[in-house]
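Supplementary Note 3. Input sequence used for the single-chain structure prediction.
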Amino acid sequence: MSNNVAYDETPEDGLRTQRDTTAMEATRPIPRISIQAFCETEGVANPIERAGEDRRMSRAHLKVHMGGVATAIEFYQSAPTPNLIVLESRQEPKELLNSLLHLAEHVDPSSKVVVIGHYNDVGLYRDLVRAGISEYMVAPISLADILAVISAIFVDPDAPPLGRSIAFVGSKGGVGSSTLAHNTSWCISQLFESEVVVMDLDLPFGTANINFDQDPVQGIAEAVFSPERIDEVYLDRLLAQCAEHLSLLAAPSTLERVYDFDVDAFASVIETAQRSAPLLVLDVPHVWSAWSRNTLAQADEIVITAVPDLANLRNTKNLVDMLKKMRPNDPPPKLIINQAGVAKRPEISSADFAEPLGLKPMAIIPFDPQLFGNASNNGRMLGEMDTKHATVQIIREIAHVLTGRGEIKPKRQLDLSSLLGRLKRKK
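The predicted structure, written as C-alpha cells, is reproduced below.
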C-alpha cells in the first residue's frame, strides 16, 4: 500500500502490497551510485527516504530535498549532479516539459533523471522519454516502486556497464603514476560526490594501501585467485572504504607468492566492479605482460604518466604506438608530464616531448618533493595536505577532464520571474 494517503485497506490494496513484496524480493542490490531526490509532497518523500534505508540501497548514497524542479535548478547551478536525479512535480504536462528543458542546462549529460508526476498522461510519458528522461512515474508511489525503477535503470543485465574504467600507467617505474591515480580518484570523489573504486593491480609492490592509510585483511588477491566467487556481493566484502565516496581494492603488497597471471585474470574482477560503481580507476604497474596488455586494451580511458627525459620519451612513444594498433577506434591516451623542473637536471621541454607523440599533455606537474613526500608519509592525499596548492589545482583540472565535467559555476540567484515569463510565452 502506498504511503501517500491514509485510508482503509481494500482488496486492491492488499493485491498491491503482495505485488510490492514480490517485486522487492526480485530486486537486486543497487550499485554504488549517488541519488538526489527533489520532492514536493511528503507522500513521495517518505517512500524515497524509506528506500534509502533498505538493505538493497546500502551501497548507494541518497539525499532527499523538499522542493520540485525549480529547487533542483537552483541547486545544480552551484553543485555537481549525481548519477540519478528523482524529481516530483505537480506541474501540468506542458509546464513540466518547459521546466525540465531549463533544468537540462545545469545537469550533466551522464546523469539519469526519473520524474514523478501527478498526471496519468500517455502523451506526456512519450514526450519525456523522447527528451531523455529515464522513467516517468505517476504518484502515489511505494517503496517497491522506487527500488524497482532504480534497479531497472542501473541493474539491467542487458544494459551496458554502469562504470567507466580509467587505467593509469607509467612509462617507467617511479614516475608517479600510482600517486596521480590515487589523488585523481580522491579528487573526483570529493568534487563530484560520485562513487569511485580504485583497483591496485600491482600485487607485489602496490602502494595504494599506504597512500590511503589502509590495512585491509583482504583485497584484490582474493578476487583474482577465486574467480568462481566473483560477484557484486563478494566484491563488496573485499573493498576498503577510504572516504565517503571512495573505495579501494587493495594489493597485498607481499612477496609470499609469485604473481603470474593469465591474459584474462583481471577481466572478471574489472567487469564486476564496473557493474558496481560509476567510475573504476585501474592502477596498472609498469610491466608488459599478457594481462597488463589486455587490461590496457579493454580500458575506456588510458592515462600515461612520464618524466621529461629520453628514456621516458622512448617508452611513451612505444606505448602510444602500440595502443593505437590495439585500439584503432578509441581516442589516444591522455599524457601527464610529472616531476618537471628538477633543479640541475637536464630535461626535454614539454613541447619537444609531446611533438613526436602527437599528443598535447593534459597536465604538466612540477617537481615538489616536500608536498608529495609529506602526503605519502602521512597516508593522506595532496588535497588534504594543502587544498590551495597549485599542484592540487592541476589535479582538480585532471579530474574535470577525465570525467568530462565542466567547472562548477558560482552560485547565482534563480530568476523565477524570468522563468515563469518564458513559460507563459510558450503556452
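The radius of gyration is 24 Å. Confidence is low (pLDDT under 50) at residues 1-15, 407-427.
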